[in-house]
User: Which sequence fits this backbone?
């Protein structure tokens, strides 16, 4: 925790200094206290963006399916993190929030079980996705492959079932599988299990790289939404803090590892939605674009509006306007 304490000291000094317009937010005359802000993230990769807040009583981690109920009402937090598309739709449906930042930039991959003789996705291969036809994996898959392999697709209900299909080489119906669409860190763990089971499993396609090469835009995934009752000065300090802390954790993953060490073993998996040791290993890996394989990052949303609108287009969601963003 020493590294984190040093980091926080640096943060306090930086928050009182002026910054260039193209980097961190401008200085604030009287720095507000943001410790009272309530924060909710889904379990999984977005937790990494708040690794320093694990013991903060105002920070809660919930199952992803609990997020929709939090956009309105007394339980509505000051900061709410969820997938970009759901958040944008919530705002359009009246949620009193704006888009503040993007904190994960894709951790999706297609793995091969090693069972396909020619090693290339083609007609007749058995392909596993998780979720349903309207979920992110399906939307991204169809952006990459259109409807060419629809007859070969098998949808598992959850990512954990898709992970089991990769590890065993068989889907939940008992059929052999050639390719599996999955996210990190489940991909990392399942590949290791598959190899233990004697399969020549490996990553077949880095979705982030393929998406960038086809669209020209960075893959954007989890967004940080700020309630409109949070003051402008509080927003500036909060986003500055997240930017510094997230970038520090990417630069030195041991800081994140130490912070997540508050919980151990099965309790850690329950609290975070992932095994911290596996996630840190993934964080240290690079994807095809040279970024960390966990997809952790920070960009103020208004600065990448084009990337956000491109991702929304996959879901047939109309483009955002600037009034939806924290400036």
Assistant:
């Amino acid at each position: 925790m020493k590294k984190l304490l040093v980091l926080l000291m640096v943060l306090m000094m930086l928050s009182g200094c002026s910054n260039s317009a193209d980097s961190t937010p401008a200085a604030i005359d009287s720095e507000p206290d943001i410790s009272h802000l309530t924060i909710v993230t889904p379990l999984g990769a977005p937790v990494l963006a708040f690794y320093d807040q694990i013991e903060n009583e105002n920070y809660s981690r919930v199952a992803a399916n609990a997020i929709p109920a939090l956009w309105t009402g007394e339980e509505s937090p000051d900061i709410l993190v969820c997938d970009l598309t759901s958040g944008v739709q919530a705002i359009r449906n009246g949620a009193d929030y704006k888009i503040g930042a993007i904190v994960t930039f894709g951790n999706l991959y297609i793995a091969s079980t090693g069972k396909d003789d020619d090693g290339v996705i083609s007609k007749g291969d058995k392909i596993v996705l998780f979720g349903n036809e309207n979920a992110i994996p399906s939307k991204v898959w169809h952006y990459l492959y259109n409807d060419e392999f629809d007859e070969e697709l098998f949808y598992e209900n959850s990512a954990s079932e898709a992970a089991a299909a990769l590890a065993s080489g068989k889907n939940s119906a008992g059929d052999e599988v050639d390719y599996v669409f999955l996210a990190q860190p489940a991909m990392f763990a399942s590949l290791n299990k598959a190899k233990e089971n004697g399969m020549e499993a490996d990553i077949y396609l880095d979705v982030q790289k393929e998406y960038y090469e086809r669209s020209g835009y960075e893959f954007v995934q989890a967004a940080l939404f700020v309630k409109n009752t949070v003051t402008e000065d509080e927003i500036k300090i909060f986003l500055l803090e997240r930017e510094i802390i997230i970038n520090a954790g990417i630069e030195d993953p041991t800081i994140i590892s130490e912070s997540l060490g508050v919980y151990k073993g099965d309790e850690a998996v329950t609290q975070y939605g992932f095994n911290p040791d596996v996630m840190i290993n993934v964080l240290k890996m690079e994807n095809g674009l040279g970024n960390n394989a966990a997809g952790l990052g920070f960009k103020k949303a208004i600065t990448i509006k084009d990337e956000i609108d491109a991702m929304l287009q996959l879901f047939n969601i109309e483009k955002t306007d600037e009034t939806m963003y924290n400036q």
Observations:
- Residues 232-251 form the longest helix (20 residues).
- The chain is about 35% helix and 15% strand.
- The first strand starts at residue 39 and ends at 42.
